[in-house]
Structure formats: structure tokens, C-alpha cells
Amino acid sequence: MTRIPRTQAVYSMSAGHAPAARVPSGETVVFETTDCYGGQIVREEQLLGGIDWDEINPATGPLFVEGAQPGDLLKVSVLDIRIADHGVMTAMPGEGAVGCKLTGDRTRIIPVRDGRVHFSDRVVLDAAPMIGVIGTAPAEGREIPTGTPDVHGGNMDNTRICKGSVLYLPVNVEGALLAVGDLHALMADGEVLICGLEIAGEVEAKVEVVKGADLPVPVVVSGGAAMAVASAPTLDQAALDATHHMMDLMTAGGTVDPQEAGMLLSLKGDLRICQIVDPMKTARMEVPLSLLDACGVRLP
Questions:
Q1: How many CB atoms are closer than 10 A to CB 163?
Q2: Residue 124 falls within a domain, yes or no?
Q3: N or C: which end of the chain has fewer CB within 10 A?
Q4: Phi-psi bin for 191: left (phi > 0), alpha (psi -120 to 50), beta?
Q5: pTM to 2 decimal places
């Protein structure tokens, strides 16, 4: 098993980054991660406005997967997510969907014990660890900050990317150059405060090169559902793109036509928000895997 330490981090996804490690297809890799603040906040007296914003959203990697060539897919199976014993949340006026209603800054350091988030003496919530940033390098000549989602993946903040999920990402450059970061012990769809419970940890994942497959990536399989994920400058456009991508996937098996696919999406397709606070907004269209199977679609 290959392990990449959290000190091997990048702040953008780009073909220009030297690989932190090289592995063959089928290898299991552990990505050690810091929280989205780069570990800068260790006391509640430290406020968001006082940290170095150039150190925000580190992603561990990138990982070079041997045999991955442009046009392939990278299949990432999330085997486990292990998190630290505390996480950080911050609130600052003007930030996030609720920033206009905030009257002051605040930082909270919140314990996580025995799979539970101890928000306060009265509020204790089940932890649900998930990956905020996971993506491959974009095509040569492009460099995308780790805090921005796009067709390469990136900062999708998709709560369904968790232990047991499978993620299909595009390979745009040789080796794919996968990077992972921004774990959350718990986060709701929308991430309306611009943060979840930001936490350090490590992700154990199996990486495989898939050749000869054409999917409207990113695609996530989690909890018996398949979902097309899309990011765009507006939430409306992200929602439309995610829906259209799932429709394309459903018709790829050749057993349903676009009219039937549209009907099925109106019956069983759940359109959901991933996040509304990043430079690009992210939505997902979910359908049961059994429905894809009935449409003659088999994911690789």
C-alpha cells in the first residue's frame, strides 16, 4: 500500500505539478490530509479573516497512476475515511449563503468522539465523513485552484463521496494526477456557511484505469444510487447540466430513448444541491442503480 503524507500538497490541479507518488492501476493508496484551513486554526480565538488565504484547501498529491492516458477514466473506490478527534468551523459576515445575516466572526473547535460530533452539551450529531476535494488534473495548459469544482472534479463538496462510494473521473493528462483533500466530519447539502465540520484525516482508496468507456464524468456511485455531478457558474446551469448528463447516461444502453429517459427522470431522478458557495456551484442528479440496469447501462 502506498501512503502520501499531508506535507505533499498542492493548491491547484495542473499537469505542471510533479507527482507525489506513482502507482500501478489497481493499487490502494492512503492520502493523508489536513483540514481546508491548512491546519492554521488551532484555537477558537483565531478567526477566519486572520489566516493566510493562500494556504486554503490543500489537496494531497498528485498521484500518478501508471497506464492512465488522456481519454481514459480513473475509477476511485473509497475504501475508508478516517478522521481526527476534532474539527473546525468558522463564520464570517459576508461569507456563504447566510453571511448576510451574520453580525460577527466566530470560530468553533468541535470534538468528534466515537463517531459522534459534539456540537454542544445539548446537540450531539452522528458523524458522516466525506471528501470535499477530489479530482484529476485538467488538460495541459489549464490550472484550476483546488477550491474550484469543474469537469475534472475538484471542490465538488458532494456528501455522497464517502466510505463505500465509487467515483469516475476524467483522465486529461498522462497519469491522471489525482489529488484529495478537504475532508468533513459532517456537512449538509449546500454547505451554506461555506464550511462543514472541517477536519484532518486520511482517505484510503483504490485507483483503477478504465479504458474504452465513455461516461459523462464526474459520476459517483454511492448507497445504491448513481449520480451525475456538474458544476457551473450558476446553480441553475449546474442543475441542468447534471440532469442532461444523467439523461445521456440512461440512453447510452440503447434500450430507452430520450423521451422515456425524461419520463423516468421525472419519476425516479432526484436532483440535489451539493454546494452553493464555491466559485462554481455544484448539483447532482441521482437515480437508483437498478434503474440504470433496467436501461441496459452497466458502469465499468
A1: 16
A2: no
A3: N
A4: left
A5: 0.97
Cβ-contact 149, 231 below 8 angstroms: yes
C-alpha cell at 270: 432526484
pLDDT at 17: 97
Mean pLDDT value of segment 103-113:
97
CA distance 160 to 123: 23
Judge if 175 and 27 occupy the same domain. yes
Q: What is the pLDDT of residues 192-235, one digit of tens each?
A: 999 999 999 999 999 999 999 999 999 999 999 999 999 999 99
The residue segments making up the domain with residue 66 are 2-39+48-83+129-210
- Taking only the tens place, the pLDDT of each residue in 136-167 is 999 988 999 999 999 999 999 999 999 999 99
| 176 & 285 share domain | no
Whichever domain contains 228, its CATH number is 3.10.28.20
The answer on 158 and 248 residing in a single domain is no
**Last residue of some domain: 210, 233, 262?**
210
Q: Which residues contact 101 (CB under 8 A, 6 or more apart)?
A: none
Phi-psi map region of 194: left, alpha, beta (phi>0 left; psi -120 to 50 alpha): left
* 139 within some domain: yes
Looking at the structure, do residues 232 and 203 belong to the same domain, yes or no? no
Cα 143–147–150 angle (5° rounding)?
A: 60
Contact between 87 and 198 (Cβ < 8 Å): yes
Pair 27, 154 in one domain: yes
pLDDT reported for residue 286: 98
